[in-house]
Amino acid sequence: MSLLNIGGGDDPAYRYKMPPVVGKKEGIGNGKKTVIVNATEVGKSLKRAPQYLVKYCAVELGAVSTFDKEQGSGTVNGWHETPILQEKTNKFIKEWVLCPKCKLPETSMELGAGKKSKDIYFDCKACGYHGVADMMHKLATFILNNPPDATGKIAEGKTDGKGKQSREERKAQKAAKRAEKERDDEDDDEGGGGDAVDIGDGDDDDDDDDDWAVDTSEAAVAEREKSAQASFDKIEAAMGDAKVSDEGGGGGKEKKEKKKKEEEEDWGESELEKQRGVIGGKVKAAIEKSAEGDVNEAVKLLMAASSEHDLEPNDLFGFIFDLAFDENCVKQIKDTHKKLLVKLFKAAPDKKKTAKFLLSSVERLIEQQEGLMKKVANVLKALYDIDLLDEDAIIGWYDKGSKRKHGKAVREAATPFVNWLKEADEDESDDDD
Fold first, then answer.
1. What percent of the chain is modeled with pLDDT above 90?
2. Are 207 and 296 in contact (CB under 8 A)?
3. Suppose 193 and one of 26, 95, 159, 235 were both cysteines; which one would form an S-S bond, judging by CB atoms 3.0 to 4.6 Å apart?
4. What are the two backbone dihedrals, phi and then psi, of residue 120, each rounded to the nearest 5 degrees?
5. Which of 54, 89, 106 delimits the end of a domain?
C-alpha cells in the first residue's frame, strides 16, 4: 500500500507520510456501519489520537461513532465510501494537524491552564506557532472531555495533557463552561434559544393541514417558561457545544443514568451522541422529503421528531443547518428547502431570537464550508428574500461586530449587502421627508 503525503501534494520526497484510510462496510438495514480499519495507524502517522479522527469523520457525516481500543479501529454508523472517509481525513488534517502558519504537520495539542482551561492550543515545533484551535467545531468539546497526553494519545484517566485531572475537576470544568456559555448568550457568536415553543398543528398560507401553531394559553406559556433552559441546552447540543438537557424527564432514573455516563472512563457513546444521532436521522429524512418537493411529508416528519424528542423550532434549525446545507446553500435556501424553512420560522414564537440564532448558524456554516466565505452576502440575501431575516436583524448583527477573527471576516464579507440595506433605508427615509 503506497503512502500519501500528509496535507496533500504529490512530491515523492515529502517526508511526512501517512497510510490511506481503509474503510469496510458492515451490517445491513438499521445496523449498517463503516469500520475505519486502520484508524490507529493513520492517527499514529498524524500524531493524533485515532479517536479524534474517527469522531471528526462522524461529526462531518452527521453520524455516531465508536472506537474499539483492542482492534484499533473506529466505527461510524451508516455506509460511507472510502474516498469520502479519505476526504474527511484530509479535512481533519488541515484543521487539526497542520500548522496554520507553516502548513507542516509538526503541531502538538494541549489544553490551556486556569481561565484558559477550556481552550485547545496548537504548538508547532517547526516554526514556533502557538495558537487556539477552532473551538466552534464539535470535535473541540470531545477533545476537552478526552484530552491528549504529551504524545498525542488520549491520556489514561482523562488528564489535561500534562498531569492528572480528577473527576471532580472535570465536572467543575464542565459546569464552569456551561455557566460561561449562559453568560455569553447575549453575544451574537453564541446560538439563540431561550423562549422557544412547543410544535404542533397550525396554519400557513400553503398546506394548512401540516403547519405548526403556538398554544398561547396560560398553561402553555407557563410550561414554555419552565422548559426554556432545557430548550437552550438542546439548541447548543444541536450546534455541538453542549449537552441535550434531560429537564422534563423528571425521574431519578434518568439522573442516575446521566451521572453514570459522566463517570464512565471508556470510549462508549454518550447519551448525547446517541440521541443526536437518532434525531439527526429523522431530520435527514425530512430534509430528503423537502428536497423531493414533498413539503407536507417533511413537515410531518419534523413534527413527529419534535413531539418525540421535545424539540423547538430553533433546535430543528440547528440540525437543518448542520445536515442540509453545503456550498450550494444559496440555492438550497431559496429553492430546495424554502417552503420548509418558512414554515419552521413561522412556528418560532420570538422571531428576533430566532433571527439571532440563524445569523450565528450562518457564521458557523461558513466556518465549516471553505467555499462559502465569498458567498456571505448571497447567503444573507437568500435568507432575507424569504423573510427569515429582516433589515434590523442583519444590520444589528453587523454593527455589533464580533470578537472572533472568523466573525469579523464574515461581517467584512457581508459589507456589500449590509451597505445596500442601509442605503435602501436611507432612501426610504429621504422619500418620507
1. 46
2. yes
3. 235
4. -110, 130
5. 106
The residues that bridge with 107 in the sheet, in sequence order, are 124
* Distance of alpha carbon 181 from alpha carbon 186, whole angstroms: 9
Strand 120-124 to strand 107-111: parallel, antiparallel, or no bridges (unpaired)?
A: antiparallel
The mean pLDDT value of the chain amounts to 78
Which residues have C-beta within 8 Å of that of residue 256, sequence separation ≥ 6?
none
Summary count for the chain: helices (H), strands (E): 17, 9
Say what the pTM is. 0.43
DSSP state of 148: B
Concatenate the DSSP letters of all residues of 109-125 into one string: EEE--GGGTT-EEEEET
CA distance 366 to 408: 12
The domain total for the chain is 2
Residue 362 belongs to some domain of the structure: yes
382 or 160, higher pLDDT: 382
Q: Are strands 23-26 and 17-18 parallel, antiparallel or unpaired?
A: unpaired
Q: Residue 272 has what pLDDT?
A: 59
- Range of lowest pLDDT (35-39, 109-113, 371-375, 401-405): 109-113
78, 106, 134 - which closes a domain:
106
pLDDT in tens, 258-283: 555 554 444 444 555 677 888 889 99
Cell 484508524 -> residue: 39
- Would the pLDDT of 160 be above 80? no
Same domain assignment for residues 178 and 32:
no
Q: How far apart are CA 432 and CA 429, in angstroms?
A: 5
CATH of residue 177: 1.25.40.180
Q: Is the pLDDT of residue 112 over 80?
A: yes
Q: How far apart are CA 317 and CA 306, in angstroms?
A: 12
